[in-house]
Specification:
heterodimer; A: 117 residues; seven-stranded mixed β-sheet; 11 strands; 51% strand; globular; B: 109 residues; mainly beta; four-stranded antiparallel β-sheet
């Protein structure tokens, strides 16, 4: 079974721009979660989607948004980029059969490294 | 609230054992453990659920004390391949998975 894929792997943007990141979950998985990873803060939860609905959201500003499509693929968008948005953005998929991401094994993709100049 | 991991970093020789602890101030339904090598995605190691169910890696063991909201990961007879950063993720009433800041483990020959 193919793993979680994320595109692009690397991005360089300038302040004020917006960016869209894509995540394709493991086949059959219906839940996709997004995380921001920085050296100082570790892995920070952004949001989780299940069957095209956002089930949970972390403490990030509204500039961070996401969506999930009927095939479970997910995108996250960051508008009006700031220097502090530079990070590794990871998505993780889970089957969703466990009902909750907190009790379901998460499988991570390789991440998208975003650099904001 | 972010769980607290200890120690922050540990250096081992091959064959030595290590324990990594994860502690939360909130009631937990689950604890997840992941290992991340530099430049790679976090890899699932183990999940421990309230009630005693465990799923995970055969060569790694862990404990989950629900009353104390604590978990420990036990790495025995460490190998060079064990090197990396270990994260615990805790699941509680909010259903979000909240990760600790990680424990850096370096295994030397």
């Amino acid at each position: 079974k193919a793993g979680v894929t994320q595109t692009p792997r690397y991005l360089i943007k300038t302040r004020g721009q917006q960016v869209t990141l894509s995540c394709s979950p493991i086949s059959g998985h219906r839940s996709v979660s997004w995380y921001q990873q920085t050296p100082g803060q570790g892995l920070q939860f952004l949001f989780e989607y299940f069957s095209e609905t956002q089930r949970n959201k972390g403490n990030f500003p509204g500039r961070f948004s996401g969506r999930q499509f009927s095939n479970s693929r997910s995108e996250m968008n960051v508008s009006t980029l700031e220097l502090g948005d530079s990070a590794l953005y990871l998505c993780a998929s889970s089957s969703g059969r466990g009902g909750l991401p907190s009790t379901d094994t998460q499988y991570f993709g390789p991440g998208t490294r975003l650099t904001v100049l | 609230q972010q769980p607290v991991q200890s120690p922050q970093a540990v250096i081992l020789r091959e064959g030595e054992d290590a324990v990594i602890n994860c502690s939360s101030s909130k009631a937990l339904y689950s604890v997840h453990w992941y290992r991340q090598k530099h430049g790679e995605a976090p890899v699932f190691l183990m999940i421990l659920l309230k009630g005693g169910e465990q799923k995970g890696h055969e060569k790694i063991s862990a404990s989950f004390n629900e009353k104390k909201q604590q978990s420990s990961l036990y790495l025995t007879a460490s190998q060079l391949s064990y090197s990396g950063t270990y994260f615990c993720g805790t699941g509680g009433a909010t259903n979000k998975l909240i990760f600790g800041t990680g424990t850096l483990l370096a295994v030397q020959p």
